[in-house]
């Protein structure tokens, strides 16, 4: 269900279940978690095989949770853990979204550092239409990304949006025919600077701590890249 391929500084992680629109089972989530957690590359490119990014949770497995509140909560916590693994990875994680990203699939994309859609990509949280909502961290990340007003309207309506509207709302950063090109662009930069930038931008400590850590990280990079800086002056 999860295919991993390394190409220099980029690890491509593919959700490979096109016959089910790349819906994720418990086993698939655990395998995805491992593929992200074990990455040694500075950039991870997350994509789906075939005509969808991911439909999210496998509804057959969700249906099997009926009447078992503990197992349902455990399933949600697993998805949350995978999303946190993506968010906390030292690698920069780029989501390449082609076709639908729905429910949990969208929530995993929200955990990525950069989201790039193709012109054919679409986005939605349809769970509310059948009495559910995404519980893989979506209610936490969606308002961070969109702001509370747009997040509420988007989630409560259950509607799907196209790439242009997703770009306008800030759900994705760019629209590209080949989203991998953005991963390649990022991977062309200094590995230690990428990791430092991600840590600093993701840091949710109070302001004084953030600024101290920023200054320390800058000093570390100046020391590490003294020769490169000198070369710029020649």
UniProtKB/TrEMBL annotation:
| Keywords, comma-separated and alphabetical | Coiled coil
Q: Where would one find coiled-coil regions in this protein?
A: 187-214
Q: Which PROSITE patterns match?
A: ENOYL_COA_HYDRATASE (PS00166)
Look up the record and give one Gene Ontology term from the biological process aspect. Answer: fatty acid beta-oxidation
Would I find RNA-binding among this entry's keywords?
no
Q: Which family does it belong to?
A: Belongs to the enoyl-CoA hydratase/isomerase family.
Stretches that traverse the bilayer? none
Q: Which GO terms describe its molecular function?
A: catalytic activity
Protein's name according to its UniProt entry: Enoyl-CoA hydratase/isomerase family protein
Query: Which Gene3D superfamilies does the record associate with it?
Result: 2-enoyl-CoA Hydratase, Chain A, domain 1 (3.90.226.10)
Source organism superkingdom? Archaea
Organism whose genome encodes this protein: Natrinema salsiterrestre
Which classification does the entry list for the species? Archaea, Methanobacteriati, Methanobacteriota, Stenosarchaea group, Halobacteria
């Amino acid at each position: 269900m999860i295919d991993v391929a390394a190409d220099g500084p980029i690890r491509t992680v593919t959700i490979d279940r096109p016959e089910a629109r790349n819906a994720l089972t418990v086993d698939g989530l655990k395998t995805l978690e491992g593929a992200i957690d074990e990455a040694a590359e500075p950039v991870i490119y997350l994509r789906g095989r075939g005509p969808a990014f991911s439909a999210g949770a496998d509804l057959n497995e969700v249906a099997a949770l009926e009447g078992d509140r503990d197992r349902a909560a455990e399933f949600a916590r697993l998805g949350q853990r995978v999303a946190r693994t993506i968010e906390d990875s030292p690698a920069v994680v780029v989501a390449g979204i082609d076709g639908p990203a729905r429910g949990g699939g969208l929530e995993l994309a929200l955990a990525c550092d950069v989201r790039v859609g193709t012109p054919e990509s679409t986005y939605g949280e349809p769970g509310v239409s059948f009495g559910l909502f995404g519980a893989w961290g979506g209610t936490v990340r969606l308002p961070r990304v969109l702001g509370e007003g747009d997040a509420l309207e988007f989630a409560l309506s259950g509607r799907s949006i196209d790439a242009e509207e997703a770009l306008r709302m800030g759900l994705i950063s760019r629209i590209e025919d080949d989203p991998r090109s953005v991963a390649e662009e990022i991977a062309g930069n200094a590995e230690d600077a990428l990791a430092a930038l991600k840590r600093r931008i993701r840091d949710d400590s109070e302001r004084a701590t953030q600024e101290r850590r920023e200054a320390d990280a800058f000093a570390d990079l100046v020391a590490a890249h003294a020769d490169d800086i000198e070369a710029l002056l020649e």
